[in-house]
Amino acid sequence: MGSRLVCAMLGRLKSLLDNLPSQLPPKTALESNFGDFLKFQPDPDILERTGCEVSALSEHPKHAFGWQSRTQGGGIVPFTERGAAVSALC
Prior knowledge:
This protein is mainly alpha-helical.
């Protein structure tokens, strides 16, 4: 996948995350399941184990969403909150 396409996809994702429906409750960084993404740094142990920043980065959403997000529910990840921590995913 070309870098322009990836940038466009990430830009679209960021826009969607920034504009989640107001029916979802806003959560502070301390309340959110995604608070770790606000000041994200790849885990040094995962980075060492994978040897690649991209691979290390891909491990963090698995922890936030759970492994079930890829194996159950048709791959659909439900968002149950909105706020800065959710927007920081992208």
